[in-house]
TrEMBL record:
Residues 1-212 form the Aminotransferase-like plant mobile domain. One of its GO terms (biological process) is meristem maintenance. It comes from Linum tenue. InterPro entries: AminoTfrase-like_pln_mobile, MAIN-like. This is Aminotransferase-like plant mobile domain-containing protein. PANTHER family: PROTEIN MAIN-LIKE 2 (PTHR46033), PROTEIN MAINTENANCE OF MERISTEMS-LIKE (PTHR46033:SF8). The lineage of its organism: Eukaryota, Viridiplantae, Streptophyta, Embryophyta, Tracheophyta. Transmembrane segments: none annotated. It comes from the Eukaryota.
Length: 230
């Protein structure tokens, strides 16, 4: 990626012929609509204790958050990864299981307004896990997510909403760019879509052409979405 090659980890800036510039917290907030204000996002990697005889600490914790118990051995998701391995859970496995649970084609019960609060919370938890592990804080596999995130998601909705997700995303993005700038590294993790959107905004000559007559009226489906979506 051309932008990664111009990243300088000493200054956290992209180095261009005309000078230096970088992605700021304001850019993250505008492009993603993530919150700037709030408490620091801090994950706890401590392995939870075993409280059920037939489940490990992480298995029981994942079941508490998602209503699903990933097997530790003998099973693999569609991408060939074990559902639970080395403190990580497979997003592919989670989404496949929740679809099977609520998809009538597989004998599941659709999620409706009449569904229990527990089912609604589980569905929301898995959706947020997918956003964290697949969009804003993805690993190189783009499929595995650290179990440590579960401890944040298990908190109240207000607590999650009061965290500074934009600053956490920016910090992770800086770390990913710094790691990828090493000559021997051939892969990169992190929210690279932000780099792409930022480049389109600040380097308009590489951005896709947009119809100048396109109106963003109040009835447009993306009118109230994050700037990056538009």
């Amino acid at each position: 990626m051309a932008m990664v090659e111009r990243w300088r980890k000493e200054t956290h800036c992209f180095n261009f012929r005309e000078g230096e510039c970088t992605i700021t917290l304001k850019d993250i907030a505008i492009l993603t609509d993530l919150s700037i204000d709030g408490d620091v996002v801090c994950v706890d990697s401590t392995v939870p204790p075993k409280v059920v005889a037939n489940m490990s600490g992480w298995q029981h914790f994942i079941w508490t958050v998602t209503g699903l118990c990933p097997p530790e051995k003998g099973d693999h998701d569609a991408d060939g990864n074990p559902p639970l391995s080395k403190g990580q859970v497979s997003i592919t496995w989670l989404t496949a299981e929740i679809r099977r649970k609520h998809n009538p084609e597989f004998g599941g019960i659709p999620l409706t307004e009449e569904s229990s609060e527990r089912d609604k919370d589980i569905y929301a938890h898995i959706y947020i896990l997918g956003m964290i592990g697949g969009v804003f804080f993805p690993k190189k596999s783009n499929n595995l997510i650290s179990n440590s995130w579960l401890k944040i998601i298990l908190g109240s909705w207000d607590d999650m909403g009061n965290l500074s997700w934009a600053s956490a995303c920016l910090a992770q993005l800086y770390r990913s760019l710094c790691n990828a700038s090493a000559r021997e590294v051939k892969e990169i993790d992190g929210a690279m879509f932000i780099v792409q959107f930022w480049a389109w905004e600040h380097l308009p000559w590489i951005a896709p052409k947009v119809d100048p007559d396109k109106e963003w009226g109040p009835d447009h489906p993306l009118r109230h979405e994050a700037y990056g979506c538009r």
